[in-house]
Amino acid sequence: MEPNELTLRPISGPGELALFSRLPYVLNEELADDLAAGRRRAEWMWVALRGDRLLARLAWWGPAGEDTPFLLDIFDIDDSDADLDRVDLGTRLLRAAMAEVIPSGTRPPEYIRNVPPEWRETDRRVVEERMEALERVGAHMFVERLRFEWRAGTPIPEPRGRLKFRPVRDTEEVLTLMTQVMAGTLDAHSRDDLTRMSAREAALKHYESELAHYRSPQEWWRVATLPDGEPVGFVTPARNAYNPVIGYLAVLPEHRGNGYIDEILGAGTRFLRAQDAPRIRAATDLGNTPMANAFHRAGYVNFERTINLTWH
Length: 312
Fold this sequence. Notes:
By secondary structure, the chain is α+β, with helices and mostly antiparallel strands. Helix content is 31%, strand content 29%.
């Protein structure tokens, strides 16, 4: 191979994780565990090399046991070389990898990039160059999301006593509640799903792609009710593969506007605190102001954002 020749290929296996990790990103520390657990595969992790120098990389992620990736969540280019055409290089790597990893005729998985809350002031060029490369292979901006974290020792607002909480009865009750909260939802993914499927189908899709993969038992989830037992909303305190999380938080349409969201979030947070969670993660769309405000009131810190691009 010539020293200046560009090579685009997947890594050979765990032995090349050090090579793959030469470019910095917040997910680097998770790569070894993900690869060992089957959430990543060597053939889903691609590099662009010139000689032994790593110029760019990308990787997909998927639930363990799945044969096709669920997210494109790593896409980095060497930003230290002023002479490097980063958009062109990124486009070439994307095209080569997608041709091998994504089955022909299928919709590529969503792209997600974690960015600082103030990324428009600090990381704009980095983020926009990646976006431009992705747009050249057919992606388009979908939504910006806020990532929240509650940290141990943060006070949790006291319950107001208006609601009671009980465990969910079964999966069917969860799906019924999820279907009901689709009405008037501000969540971009749910709104997009509703353009192609029924509310029940959208709820089932969300359940199967996320909630069904939690490592913690369904018995942790809580339904909020009025004193007479009428459901008002629900919350799913849980543990995913990485952190304790508030995975789903919702108020039924007929009960919105009464401030119940604070009490429901508080119940979920207190439950995970009782499990000695050192931190709790959660997320919501930038445009879902009521949900974002609830996390702020509950003492959650917006520590990061995500940029999401999708393919039609």
